[in-house]
Amino acid sequence: MTLEQGKCNVVIGQSGSGKTVLMKSIVGLLEVDAGEILYDDRDFTRMGKRKKQMLRKEMGMLFQGGALFDSITIEENVMFPLNMFTNDTYKSKLKRVDFCLERVGLKKVNKLMTSELSGGMRKRAAIARAIALSPKYLFCDEPNSGLDPKTAIRIDNLISEITKEYNITTLVNSHDMNSVLEIGDKVVYIYQGCKCWEGTKEEVMHTDNEALNNFVFATKMAQQIKKI
């Protein structure tokens, strides 16, 4: 699978098909047994600890639940990767934090705790943290999980806007067909741990791939029932 720069590359598949394992492998949270993971021709699987750490400066990660730290403020959450990977002054880091929070539509939340934010606001704060280091690669694991349809659309649009605005290579794991059709510049379908199909969001609705058709139909039916 090749992820395209400046586009939202969306991986879809049933629960247990391997979407999260794939993403965790790509970012190095899991060690692979075979194969290659190439970042612009740099083989991540063959790198030592120090080189992997350097490459991780180019990555941003949006976890399924947001994964914000409950015991520190939103400002400190967004500043966390800056503290870990840079030697910038506090003033410079705070300026970057303010910029990222404003970019995701969050103002005057710096001193709030995670518990004081709504679900959608937490996801936006997590996106602000994910882009704090100006990443070349952005990974989003089920970004719409637990959100109402209106908020989900807002998060989708934000991820798409940031991807194109900063020419990021973005990978999104999703089982939400509305999300796929909204932002999926490139779509990859995983079935039982293997890539079964890939194409555009236009092609996904007219494929003759039986497994994909069954997945799309079942997902759309579930979403319609949920709305009812």
What topology does this entry show?
Layout: E1 8-12, H1 19-27, E2 38-39, E3 42-43, H2 49-56, E4 59-62, H3 74-85, H4 90-103, H5 119-130, E5 137-141, H6 149-165, E6 169-174, H7 177-183, E7 186-191, E8 194-199, H8 210-227
Helix pairs in contact: 3-4, 3-5, 4-5, 5-6
In brief, what are we looking at here?
The chain has 228 residues and is of the alpha/beta class.
Folded structure, characterized:
- This protein is α/β, with parallel strands linked by helices and 228 residues long.
- It is 43% helix and 16% strand.
- It has eight helices and eight strands; from the N terminus they run E-H-E-E-H-E-H-H-H-E-H-E-H-E-E-H.
- The protein is globular.
- The model has no long low-confidence stretch (mean pLDDT 87).
User: What share of the residues lie within helices?
Assistant: 40-55%
Indicate the mean pLDDT.
87
Instruction: Characterize the largest beta sheet: strand count, sense, and whether it forms a barrel.
Output: 6 strands, mixed
Quote the distance from N terminus to C terminus: 37 Å
Q: pLDDT under 50 segments (min length 5)?
A: none
Structural class: alpha/beta
